[in-house]
Amino acid sequence: QPMKIITITVFAVTFSCLFGGRILVSLNKAEVQLHSVICGTIVNCLANLLLIPKLGVTGAAIATVLSESIVLIYCVIAIPKEYKISFAPINSMKIFVSSVLAAYFARIFVSPIGSNMLLQFASNIIEFGVVYLILLVIFRERLVGKFVSIFFGKR
Questions:
Q1: In sequence order, what are the residues at sequence separation of 6 or more whose Cβ sits closer than 8 angstroms to the Cβ of residue 53?
Q2: What does pTM read for this prediction?
Q3: At what angle do helices 9-16 and 57-78 cross, to 10 degrees?
Q4: Cβ distance 44 to 63 under 8 Å?
Q5: Per-residue pLDDT tens over the stretch 99-119
Q6: Ramachandran angles phi, psi of 3, nearest 5°
């Protein structure tokens, strides 16, 4: 159960790295990114203190998701108003739907590779990645299409 919960952090960490590590730092606002990490650390410590005694490892996973989400929200709010973030809604939806479906598939159809947790985890990652890429190709996501064209020499 804790691994299922903590996989949510993949999305929060990815976007907080984008907004904090890439955008804020390139705008000379590294201190804002540092503040977001400090805020996330404080939230993580407090949430762990409250949740671990009641929920154990599952509480720690929830605390991690919560703290990483706080870091992401802090970074997004801190981006200056003059710096407009724009997403192509259709491409963003394709990526979101592919991520959710791949995570669902990997969660439901975990390959039974013995009782070795590391092997199961590695198998789960591979399953997620393969399904995710297949879905992006099926949805004709622009960047993946360019990569496939270059990879197969069809520029």
A1: 59
A2: 0.57
A3: 30
A4: yes
A5: 778 877 776 766 566 667 777
A6: -65, -35
